[in-house]
Design brief:
The protein has 15 helices and 16 strands. The protein is of the alpha/beta class.
Length: about 375
Amino acid sequence: MWELQAPVEYKKTNKKFFRTIYKQGDIQTGVRSLSITVEELEAAGLDEQLEAVETAVETHIEGTYSNVAVVSEPFAGREVFLDYAEEEFGAAAGRITFEEVVTGELPEFPVAEIVLVDNCHYLYTRQIGGFDVLETFLDRIVNRDALYVTSWNRYAWTYLSAVTDVQAAFPEQIQIPRLDANQVANLLTTHHGTPLPMFVEDEDSGRMRSVDVEWSEFSVGSDRTVSLPYPELHPEYVLSRVRTDAEFDIEAVVYRRIAQLSEGDPGVATILWDRSIRDGRIAPSYVQEFDKPIDIDHDQAFVLEVILTNERIAYDQLDRVCGEVAVDQALQALLTQEVISIDDDDRIQIDPVRLYSAVEHLAGRQLVW
């Protein structure tokens, strides 16, 4: 069971905000702790996307120029695709990974036939002059003979595609798709190994209800929203009433619930799975506990959008990008609702299990596409 410790005051660049730490043994929630493997993605049915990277590189070696952009949701395993290319092509490949927003001069890249570049969404910021580094990067790759295989946050990529010509620089775009319930089941069984946990009903609260009360944001005026309840039907439980006991499989319900709350994101699905196991058991209601509404104002939503598109950002960089917005208050609101966390390197990120609550909230405010 994950334990939320009391917030402690944390100081950086003469600002104050709150740090939340989650712990479960040695497991941390930071992005760096996610460890999806090639084998897990193959089990989930992403062979075609993995092979597309290999094909693009092989085609380049044969004389066809086509830079590659691997695009995905946060936590979905983009780095695995570059790991795969690095292993496949060995000494022909060089790699650089951006861990934070790049300011000033663009660093030198490896001298190699195939250049792998992780986290290219760190090459821009949404502020005056914020595209300078990205434009330098695009100019550089156009004037070199190497093949560039790059990875991007999907929300940053969508924004940049609308306001820049970034897509023209990467003719080959590999989108990591969202997984369905069967793919999630295959991913998680490979991820967990044997034996699997016991699939049970929640012994304390009994069978999960066929209808739950959910919450959604509704606009009130031009700059205010309120959260209102609405009923949500759980079709798998309704359908179970017309099945025999042999036909009704609680295991399938768990996988379906994880697929729904993760929106098929491989990394989020594995985190939901790991956090939902209690003493060797897992139940649909254990998974459902992570589905919570978000109640924030427009300025706080903008801060959340910046965190989403960066995935992992230092406080001073966030404060600089957000300008006149009260970043401290926004972070306090987001931490209180467990939407974000602070990793071991003191960088702010969305907590993986709250990713799609955050995306849905921002989509409702038209801050992401």
